[in-house]
Amino acid sequence: MKKLFYFICLSLFLLSCKSEQKVKSSYIQLQGKTMGTTYNINYESNINYQKGIDSVLTVVNSEVNTYDPNSTISKFNQSETGIDLAVAVNDTKNDLYPTRKHFIENFITAKIIYEKTQGAFDPTVMPLVNYWGFGYTPKKPIDAVDTMKVDSLKAFIGMNKVSYEGTQLKKPMAGIQLDFSALAKGYGVDEVGRYLESKGINNYMVEIGGEARAKGKNDKGEYWNMGVSTPDELARLTALIAAVRLNNESIATSGNYRNFYEVNGVKYSHTINPKTGFPERNNLLSATIIAENCMLADALATSCMVLGLEGAKKLVADIKNVEAYFIFSNQEGKMEAYLTSGLKDRVKAF
């Protein structure tokens, strides 16, 4: 599973569309840092909204960033039995309301995807992610696999162990921890998109660490195109295998070809299978998901990497308004692509 705010080099790069006709308009390009990675934003306007965008992302981080010991998610992870997601209004105990909006939305969506994937997507995998060296603890490859330790950590795994009742987020064991890294970046993308729309902006592209959301058209009057990185550990960071045309959609890609380490000839990737407790190894090299919102695309892309090619096909076929572009290794060890029907005329392979 993708780990929170690591730069895992799965970036999708904005591609310029070729067009002979130029559209007279003013587009602003912004770059910055957030969630342990970078963002790139391009939108039609004469106003620079970077300060407001950074404020939005700061608030999101304060709730879902596991690297921030004072964030909402960190407080839950550090707690013995859970936390209260409500705060007092006007300093009166009788007037409470839930304010951790971003945390709650991530939690609810994570729970839905957990159930939809029958546990393949599971944010409580955090203890295992830390064990394998891909979490918020200092990154350190293991010297030797301790299967007994892995089995003991599996006792803390299971989204069904975390309950949300009223304003209380509860857990039966202190060792249970949450990690929203597989959907938080996508959520951040959506929040920035909603912020821009609140300013009356209808043409924009927002990208954070490779996950992106596009609306309207670019400065050439064409639909936005997003590049898909070549899933090869030896490829350049900027190497692209294809481009996908987006029509008011979001896109996210997950893969294991960058964020991994090797011990005694065995490769261990950041995608941890919650059921086995081990890094997942299958023939699916990368999973690109196109959906209405980026949080869903982000979560489903990770789910597909855990499920493998056949499981991923079944998952996306069962969800409405979702398209997929899978790169996998065939029996001859060569790269091959699988596209859902809705992408047949929207993917340009390089």
Ranges with pLDDT <50 over ≥5 residues? 1-24, 88-97
Main CATH class: Alpha Beta
Q: At CATH's second level, what is the architecture?
A: Roll
Kindly report the average pLDDT value.
87
Could you spell the SSE succession in H and E letters? EEEHHEEEHHHEEHEEEEEEEEHEEE
CATH topology: T-fold
Largest sheet: 8 strands, antiparallel
Strand fraction: 25-35%
User: What structural class do you assign from the helix and strand content?
Assistant: alpha+beta
The whole-angstrom Rg is 20 Å
**What distance lies between the first and last C-alpha atoms, to the nearest angstrom?**
28 Å
Please bin the fraction of helical residues: 25-40%
Tell me the overall shape.
Answer: globular
Number of domains: 1
Q: Strand order within the widest sheet? A: 2-3-9-10-13-16-17-18
Count of alpha/pi helices: 7
Number of strands: 19
CATH superfamily: ApbE-like domains
